[in-house]
Design brief:
Elements lengths: L11 H22 L6 H26 L2 H15 L54 H7 L3 E2 L1 H5 L6 E2 L15
Antiparallel strand pairs: 1-2
Helix pairs in contact: 1-2, 1-3, 2-3
């Protein structure tokens, strides 16, 4: 099990997926450009393959050490190598079309982030800005016209609410009732 539960993307499985993806793309590139030759391109292949192996070993070592920051840095080392093949159909992370939800949940409450990943970005690249954690029940409440303090949602805290008929003058939506 993970020494850290702070980020759902930084796992042994995802690091292995990045490493295997890089290895396979390097082999594809080598075979396509220089089948059967052992010259400059083969040396480049060996060098880049060695970089991928080293990056993967670093991730595994950091994983075992349990340092969240170093785990993240090692994971990004693998991803940065893999970005050369970002448009490949086997790329280990989805590329957003603007409808891909953020995979991060509030550490305090478990509420999901309601922001979408920017078009052309991956979940690990995020959406820019902070997260907007919101109880999934908010959509249901909003459809019912319920009043609540949207500012509290930013912190991921449970948000008190009330129906319009129960509104009081201290409610931010008093005038909307």
């Amino acid at each position: 099990m993970s020494p850290t539960a702070t980020h759902p993307l930084y796992t042994e499985q995802s690091a292995l997926a990045w490493y295997e993806f890089i290895r396979d793309r390097l082999e594809d590139d080598l075979r396509a450009a220089y089948p059967g030759q052992d010259d400059g391109p083969m040396a480049t292949y060996r060098e880049r393959y060695g970089e991928a192996q080293k990056a993967h070993r670093r991730f595994l070592a950091e994983w075992d050490a349990g340092d969240d920051y170093e785990i993240e840095q090692a994971w990004w080392g693998l991803k940065n190598i893999a970005n050369d093949w970002r448009q490949h159909p086997d790329f280990p992370e989805p590329i957003s079309d603007g409808t891909l939800p953020c995979p991060i949940t509030s550490p305090e409450t478990g509420h999901p982030c309601t922001k979408m990943i920017n078009p052309g970005w991956t979940p690990s690249e995020g959406h820019g800005g902070g997260h907007w954690f919101q109880d999934p029940k908010v959509t249901e409440l909003r459809e019912q016209g319920v009043h609540f303090d949207a500012g509290l949602l930013l912190s991921g805290q449970p948000t008190p609410y009330h129906r319009p008929e129960d509104c009081t003058p201290d409610c931010l939506q008093w005038r909307d009732r």
